[in-house]
Amino acid sequence: MGPLARSNVLEIKPYVPGKPIEEVQRQLGIKGEIIKLASNENPLGPSPRALAALRQACGRVNLYPDDGAYYLTAALAKSFGVDEDQIILGNGSVELIEFVAKAFLGETDTAVMSDQAFIMYRIVSMIANARRVEVPLRDYTHDLEAMADAIDGSVKVVYIANPNNPTGTMVSGEEVERFLDRVPESVVVVFDEAYIEYIERPDFPDSLRYVREGRNLVFLRTFSKAHGLAGLRVGYGIGPQELIEPLRKVRLPFNINMLGQEAALAALDDDEHIRRSREINAAGHRYLSRELDALGLFHTDSVGNFVFVDTGIDCKVVFQGLQRKGIIVRPLAGYGFPTAFRATVGTERMNKRFIKALAEVLAEHREASRPPAP
Ligand SMILES: Cc1ncc(COP(=O)(O)O)c(C=O)c1O
């Protein structure tokens, strides 16, 4: 008997998440501190306001959550100046990426994405058994012109991570507007803006304005990064009501757990935590950029809370070497970058430990690959 699962499912290469600290401790028997820079989490920890709200809410977890997440939805609507029916909440923004595929992609439809963008766009399209056009990045960035060229009558969805994960590069408002002018009304454009709170560039596109202009566009955000709530899984999407309604239909009940709702609500206006997170991130980028240059390593101009580093050698060697020294980064072979890795920008102390370990690993590799003296 052959396999029972559908062939499109059999073909999926599962998502490989960043390694949890406990797993590295268990596998390598490391006793000292392990620093995880593999999943772009907030090194400052959760929003303190969220923590206070969580303590209050813990005793009520015997009850199901509010399925409509009334208070969180209302707070987001107020914060963005949109109607509540323009908002969809997800179990992390990753669930919203899936809702888009579930609601809009069938077997005869095509999804357009970059070939080296957040890998979930590929996976959800494969689950939907939709066709895919994967457009090569240009200079580590989405090639919006080529993506617009790829749109034919079968295309229903275009996924764009801005900034892109794993390269950290962004497309500007001007580029996006030129792109949107070429997108027909039959196409839903998804802007995945998981790292927006970290953006300091004034030319970053204003997705909310595009929604207000009535474009067929949904933008996705998350509480996982700057708000520091990755473990609670809360993301949201905002778009025109006609696009949000089908997304709500494919949502299963209670997808946002009670603690997630309470924490996200409290974190939403924790401006101080966001401000400190941005500040630490900007300082970290300056430090890492300088140190990576000093090590002679290529890195992109990342605007997120992570760096993309090409070491020029097998990224497994660097990943494993760093891991032995208690630093977890994300190797990017699965993204088609066999010599690159991605590392979250940490606190000053974490960044220093990371750079020291990286310099040691590279030196050890150089030593090991030196031909024996004649
Ligand atoms: C571009 C991008 N989108 C979405 C996500 C998913 O985030 P979450 O599901 O935690 O909201 C990530 C996480 O790393 C990401 O990098």
TrEMBL record:
Reactions catalysed according to its record: L-histidinol phosphate + 2-oxoglutarate = 3-(imidazol-4-yl)-2-oxopropyl phosphate + L-glutamate
Source taxon at top rank: Bacteria
An annotated GO BP: L-histidine biosynthetic process
Aminotransferase class I/classII large domain boundaries: 33-358
Names of the cofactor(s): pyridoxal 5'-phosphate
EC number: 2.6.1.9
Sequence positions bearing N6-(pyridoxal phosphate)lysine: K225
GO MF annotations in UniProt: histidinol-phosphate transaminase activity; pyridoxal phosphate binding
Pathway field: Amino-acid biosynthesis; L-histidine biosynthesis; L-histidine from 5-phospho-alpha-D-ribose 1-diphosphate: step 7/9
CDD domains xref list: AAT_like
Keyword list, A-Z: Amino-acid biosynthesis, Aminotransferase, Histidine biosynthesis, Pyridoxal phosphate, Transferase
Record family assignment: Belongs to the class-II pyridoxal-phosphate-dependent aminotransferase family. Histidinol-phosphate aminotransferase subfamily.
Known partners and oligomeric status: Homodimer.
HAMAP family (alphabetical): HisC_aminotrans_2 (MF_01023)
Name of protein: Histidinol-phosphate aminotransferase
